Amino acid sequence: MAKTPEFDVSAAHKYFSAHCFNKAWDLIEKTDRTPEEERLMVALNQASIYHWLQRDDCNHQRLSVGYWQASRIQTLLGNAGEALRLGEVCLSYSGELKPFYLGYAHEALARAHGLAASPRESARHLGLALELAAKVGDKGERELLVADIEQLKCRA
């Protein structure tokens, strides 16, 4: 039987869910990642999702964001199949969420389909993301989503 740790496990999950997400994001933004940093980026994202799953306040919104990041990472690494799979997981958690989160699920799938050389599917998801962006009430959230969509449109 495992010994009870001498620290607050709930507090550790709360800390590491956000900490690992943010560290993975730092590596996403880094333009000259080493292979070790790429592996670390994946591990940090997976650790973040794990720690969220252990929290009492875990919900579809938080999992949507975690799997969105996972899909984005796999797209950056050139792993189209995994990016698509994780984008679909993101979408499965996003269906009942605000347009901001659902829009980002479609943005992830547009990105992944772009990598997978599926231009029709990429354009379809991009269009859905754009439609949803128009429904985002918060100006800052809307501008963030639109900026990412515009970035993808420039690559198409």
Number of strands: 0
Q: Summarize the amount of helix as a percent range.
A: over 70%
Q: Treating each run of at least 4 consecutive H or I residues as one helix, how many helices?
A: 7
**How much of the polypeptide forms β-strand, as a percent range?**
under 5%
Oligomer kind: single chain
Q: Runs with pLDDT <50, length 5+? A: none
- What Rg do the Cα atoms give? 16 Å
List the helices and strands and how they pair.
Layout (H helix, E strand, L loop, with lengths): L8 H21 L5 H19 L6 H17 L3 H15 L4 H17 L3 H15 L5 H17 L1
Helix pairs in contact: 1-2, 2-3, 3-4, 3-5, 4-5, 5-6, 5-7, 6-7
Overall description:
- It is a single chain.
- It is built from seven helices and no strands.
- It has 156 residues and is mainly alpha-helical.
- α4 (80-94) packs antiparallel against α5.
- 38% of the residues are buried.
Considering the chains and any ligands shown, give keywords for the structure.
156 residues; mainly alpha; 7 helices; globular
Compact summary:
The protein is 78% helix and 0% strand. The chain is built from seven helices and no strands.
